[in-house]
Design brief:
Length: 267
């Protein structure tokens, strides 16, 4: 199934589930930037929520906000029983300690999965795995390479794949090209999240049965969005950019919000 159909199907399921709940699942987004990309991500989250029947509230703070003021807003949302999920949109202004803010979010509302004690799997790895499972990908004993070791994608992706019994190798900016080529050649699943337009190309060898999951979002000289892999590599499945992992990440946020409500109703 293509990613758009997969996302539409799951959204319809979430919508049906939302109708049977005694509460309206509510997400609070705290945003303290005026970044165009962030504004567009926030608009996407609001649109997804509304389509499903969730409530998405935006608390937009000035970029001059102080650490204490921002933490106070986080605390208010933590304590509000009508808010089930809370995310702080990145990037944060220079004067803010990002780590302290991530740690201030109540782990049981941390639907981004950024807190070390969060009840939730970070959205990009979660969305990718949900899609691959729907595609029938059998993770057990498969060789997986994760390119990139960021806190929000590379590391949680590697951890999640390990929990699914993959043999996981993380490659990064200090890995030699020779080693990258050797690992990629024998890999069943490649997740690339490095932020380099078209980095994976035909100069690498791939297994014809391999799956490439392209997380990269890069603005090309043509003004359009491109992935970290060139299109149409000789593999079994390659996710497109745009219209790929970005949609799965957005969907996973909505799935995490539903999970947050279900936890709360159970407790
Ligand atoms: P980042 O930008 O914080 O870090 C890049 C990582 O790539 C580092 O760990 C670095 O070691 C590694 N790296 C850099 N050059 C490399 C090379 N030549 N070979 C191997 N590794 C290399 O990472 P990020 O925040 O995970 O973002 C990566 C990309 O994914 C960006 O394009 C970003 O926009 C995109 N992204 C997309 C989504 C989505 O929902 N689709 C979500 C998050 C990030």
């Amino acid at each position: 199934m293509d990613i758009k159909s997969f996302v539409a199907k799951r959204k319809a399921e979430l919508s049906a589930m939302a109708k049977s709940l005694p509460v309206v699942p509510t997400l609070m987004i705290i945003q303290a930037n005026d970044d165009p990309a962030s504004n567009s991500y926030v608009r996407g989250k609001i649109k997804d929520g509304e389509e499903i029947g969730f409530k998405v509230l935006l608390n937009k703070l000035p970029t001059t906000v102080t650490q204490a003021e921002l933490l106070k807003e986080v605390e208010k949302a933590n304590e509000d029983p009508n808010i089930h999920g809370l995310i702080v949109q990145l990037p944060l202004p220079k004067q803010i300690d990002e780590k302290a803010v991530k740690l201030a979010v109540n782990p049981s509302k941390d639907v981004d999965g950024f807190h070390p004690l969060s009840s939730f799997i970070p959205c990009t790895p979660k969305g990718i795995v949900a899609y691959l499972k729907a595609e029938g990908f059998d993770f057990k004993g498969k060789n997986a390479v994760v390119l990139g070791r960021s806190e929000i994608v590379g590391k949680p992706m590697a951890k999640f794949l390990l929990s699914l019994d993959c043999n996981v190798t993380v490659l990064h900016s200090k890995t030699s090209m020779e080693d990258k080529k050797a690992y990629i050649k024998m890999t069943d699943l490649i997740v690339v999240a490095i932020g380099r337009l078209g980095y994976l190309d035909n100069s690498f060898e791939y297994k014809s049965s391999a799956v490439i999951v392209d997380v990269g979002i890069n603005r090309g000289e043509d003004g359009k969005l491109h992935g970290d892999a060139v299109p149409n590599l000789p593999v079994a499945i390659q996710t497109p950019v745009p219209g790929g992992v970005g949609l799965l990440t957005r969907l996973a946020l909505m799935d995490n919000l539903m999970e947050a409500v279900n936890h709360e109703l159970r407790d």
